[in-house]
Amino acid sequence: MKLTRRSFIKAAGATGVIAVGATGSKPMLQALAESNGTEKAKSMQGEWRPTVCQGCTTWCAIQVYVVNGRAVKVRGNVNSKSNNADGKVCPRAHMSLQQVYDPDRIKTPMKRTNPKKGRNEDPKFVPITWDEAMNEIADRFLELRKNNEPHKFVLMRGRYTYLREILYGAFPDLIGSPNSISHSAICAEAEKFGSYFTEHNWDYRDYDLKNTRYVLLWGADPLASNRQVPQALKMWGEVMDNAKVAAVDPRLSATAAKADDWMPVIPGEDGALAVAMAHVILSEGLWYKPFVGDFVDGVNRFKQGATVDPETFSEKYTYGIVQWWNLELKNRTPEWAEERSGIPAEQIRKVARGFADAAPRAISWLAPGTAMQVRGGYAAMASHALNGLVGSTDNVGGAIRKSSIPTNGIPDLKPFMDDIAKVGNDHKKMDQRGYKEFPAMKKGKSGGGVVTNRLADGILQEDPYDVKMAIGYWNNLPFSCSGASRWEEALTKLPFFVHITTNPAEMTMFADIVLPAAQSVFERLGYIKSKAGTIAWLAMNQRVIDPVWDVRVDETEIPYMIAEKLAEKGFTNILDYFNSFKDPETGKNPANSWEFTEHVLKIMTQPVWDPAIKSNGDQFRGWQEFKKIGVWNSEPYKFRNKWDDFGTDSGKFEFYSESLKHALEKHAKKHNTDVDDIMETTKYTARGELAFVPHYEEAYRWGDESEYPYIFFEHRSRLNREARSANCEWYQEFKDVDPGDEKWGDVAKVNPVDAAKLGLKSGDNVRLTSPTGKIECTVKIWEGVRPGTIAKCYGQGHWAYGRVAANDFKKHMPRGGNNNELLPADYERLSGSTARHGGVTRIKVEKV
Amino acid sequence: MPNYAMVIDLHKCAGCGACAITCKNENNVPEGMYWSNYIHRTRGKFPNVRYEFVPTLCNHCEDAPCVKACPVGAMYKDENGLTLHNPDKCIGCKACVQADPYGVIYYNEEKPHNFWSDKEEAIEKGTSSGKEVKEKYDAPFPFYNPDRAKTYAGVRPKGIVEKCTLCDHRIKDGDVPYCVASCPSGARVFGDLDDPKSEINKLLNKYSYFKLGENFGTKPKVFYIREF
Amino acid sequence: MTKVVTSNQSRANIYKLLSLCYQPPYEDLDNIVSSLREEIDKLPAIKYKIGTLAEELASCISDLEHTKVDHAKLFIGPFDLLAPPYGSIYLEGKRKVMGDTTMEVMIKYQEAGLKLDDEFKEPPDHITIELEFMYYLIFKELQGQETNEYQTEFLINYLEPWVGEFCHRIIQNAGNDFYKLLAKITASFIKADMKVNSLVC
């Protein structure tokens, strides 16, 4: 029985003594409770402490089981309310234990003593103190500023927490450099392009799997990668009970393996399928009329080949359905698409009908596979536009957005920005964004987004100018960017490069100074925002164990320490600014880098933990309680809020994108030209108004078919922690959970038909050669790829990073080959995105 | 006394391998050994291809050949129907390994977790070694789970065998095996086969099921329902 | 009843009532405080030390709202706690809730067959919980199920080492007399109880 305080006192009054003494009486407990026998013995030697897993972009709130200061296990944070709650998490999270305790972690700041740089040069690193490191870095900054060229400093950001506002945001601003270059464009900007230019959403979408009746996946493999993996893993049994699943993927992916329909599209031809499905939906009258509207007289005029008079159709929440039909769809029959995509017309029809029959509870799930192609921008739009045709956008069982997460910005830094900094900040950015051939139209603005991979060329060509100094953190660009060898050259050219990293990554090997970073799950502070299953959350990275080594938090502590050193040498602005960050509870200024970190975190997250501020989700009694729980959950998403105004130029869901038209015209005007010329410059074939509607573009490939007979394409691993887990033994031991892959191996998956032609058997070593590079790996004969194509997973091929990841770390011998050394550096230029998918290159295969 | 068993719903299973990874974590299983494991295969011809994934573990057979084969009674059936192993009695003769038709018993040829005794450094003085990291902690290796040692050797020494215990140390505490607790798809259900009201019996009544190596005559207690 | 039993009943009750006093104050605070005084009166050695304080305490809770505000400022936040009610903060010398001593305390509870109540969302080293745990241990001793050693061990290792500083911070920072008096009573009682207790065993 649960006793209240009142009954306790009452009992005391009645007995004279308070509930003690009498045989058989029960103790009266409020804060504690008697546990039953099983719980009594429960193995609670340790304690579950909250933090965040950033092994992929799901960014799960997790908990770490800590015993005597050791991290022993990992689980989902039981306080999380999204579908990935109840203590479950995907296989990636568990591997983080082998990351934090990795013996190959950098344990001290180091300095290069071999001035020569290059993959085959031993950097001859020697340990130095943090103070020595800061001293040297500060001197370099002061030198740049003295010469009025602070803009020649580049900050290269990789993965991040939202404390990025300091190192990536404020710090370069106050130094005087516009060059805060993020990794975003190697991540998936082309995907955001698809949802932005249809419905004004520059973000990844959430999916209401619980209520859906059809899931159509575009190069998405949610059981293994992309976003929201734990939610997909948890929900998929139910999804398969309630819904049909079709997977467009050139490889038999983890999700395709369980799908009702696998559509092994010829890489890069996804757009043909999307527009053909739209054609079927319209010509068969299957669109969702409550969202799209209908012909005024109810007679379907969408007949193959027929041009339709826009006046005859009355649209509701959409814009340009008839123009889309007239400009693009009217002849895009399944038979036409079969020729291009390799997918039978009947299967296209079947999937299109099934998808539309489920309307509006039908998800068209757009992912990098379909979007990050040289001509993927329009395929992204086309596949996302299907959500518009079936009215599933922002709807129950459909593709939705995330609830808002209230946070604060950081204090105004303008008062601390001196003239040198102001002048420096006015320079162009080094990644060539906004150049004629790189529109990078994030949110419709020319040059609004990053062109990450182009930075290497910017540095090499000294265009727009030369770079004298760079800091990189939580990134490994010569591994993660296609055209990887350019990065090796660019980093070799950099006169002074500082790498903040946990492991001796490929990028580290080019550094002049190496700084050991706090591991993101266990050792740092930070916070993230994410969403899944209609719940948005804010969770904090927390220091749940004492750091294994003498590390610092990259985004806050290191800039603070540099600022201290700069102040010591006479430039106090940055430290003055940082020291103005008051603890919102005590009003105290920070006394050191750790306190500063805490203040930034407390300031930015105050709207969720401060009981005085009402939020659209969990309420806490204060900072301490929030720290203990570790995650703030929003209220469930409210559907159909956007229908009345999507925020596009027309306010509607745009099948004819006025927003894109506007953006392209502005970009063209900036370069004194027209949109057709921009299309040509950005490698697109569309001319005229076709550029403003989702449409088919033939796949763009490097390499001549006669010399390079096979289409190469790559995919993601369910064990990749963004290519940072290859040094974990478990990664290697369980690599074969990726269908077709092998333990401890790196295999090129070849269809038996091709293997027979090439005289190859599984286990043979081969060299793969593209027009821009070559790698070596092992052959795996596998039916899960189409004849004529060769698939390989990304993640292996490290020649550095550690002694497990590399075949021989000291000799720089890779385990397998890194796909990015094979892939050419190419782009979906309208978004700035790297184009790594869609069979961007052809290759030849030779036995070695 | 309960008769513990497991049901694995292959329809829910996504083949992610979390069971196998977390088993290593919970039970301090060394490299190359897989108490929790899986079989996978790809069948058919492009484009009509099927991929199947079947998670495996010790079947805790009612009629366990490994128990019969053990000359010293180190391998035994406990009162809860589990097939367990007593490391103190084990003489490392590997008769159980021979007898086990499922290949789920592993022999420790070498000192386990050798990785953490290694003194090599990737970058001299700049990075660490397995040995140096290990010595920072009062444990056989940094993420060693001490709970395992409650009912079994926390790490099994060289010269004896080891196998899945269905996490008897967790069951004893009223918890479920760790592969069940950590399966993100909820594909694994653990319970008492002799309790007609148990969740596993509900599933076995609802769906048809199969067991691995039913013709071995070992009466395995890991049941598979539905299709991958 | 023997004398030991009677005094143990009172000891248990005092711990329990002190535990209640550190919870957010409600209308029943009057009752709690007057019960506390009665129990203290039953133990001559204790009464000699804090009987007067207990009387004063009973007379100074006229304004419940003020007491509530004071309680929040001292123990709850939202801003920096004037007297954080968590052992680990004092024991480990840093502001780290859920430190290792927190974990050890939790293990003590578990060894005694207890868990944290699901509705009482505070860390295991919260003053309310530790005081209630003492109550529980004495209760069990009275039932003949636990020995006195557990109490002593817990007192020496976990409760006493921080209660002094904790109470000191209350005395320094409390806005009105109620919590100042409560702190004085708590500190003196625990000190005295430890002496008495260690003599007993």
Number of domains of chain C: 1
Question: What fraction strand of chain C?
Answer: under 5%
CATH architecture heading of chain B: 2-Layer Sandwich
Q: Which range best describes the helical content of chain B: under 10%, 10-25%, 25-40%, 40-55%, 55-70% or over 70%?
A: 10-25%
Stated plainly, the CATH topology of chain B is called Alpha-Beta Plaits
Secondary structure: number of strands of chain C: 1
Tally of helical runs of chain B: 7
**Rg calculated over all Cα atoms of chain C:** 16 Å
State the separation between the terminal residues of chain C, measured CA to CA.
Answer: 20 Å
Mean of residue pLDDT of chain B?
95
Q: How many strands, what sense, and barrel or not for the largest sheet of chain B? A: 4 strands, mixed
Name the CATH class of chain B: Alpha Beta
Describe this structure in words.
The complex is a heterotrimer of chains A (848), B (228) and C (201). With 848 residues, chain A is of the alpha/beta class. In chain A, 30% of the residues lie in helices and 17% in strands. Residues 12-17, 19-24 and 37-44 of chain A have low confidence and may be disordered. Chain C is mostly helical and 201 residues long. Chains A and B meet through helix 2, strand 4, helix 3, strand 6 and helix 8 of A and helix 1, strand 2, strand 3, helix 4 and helix 5 of B.
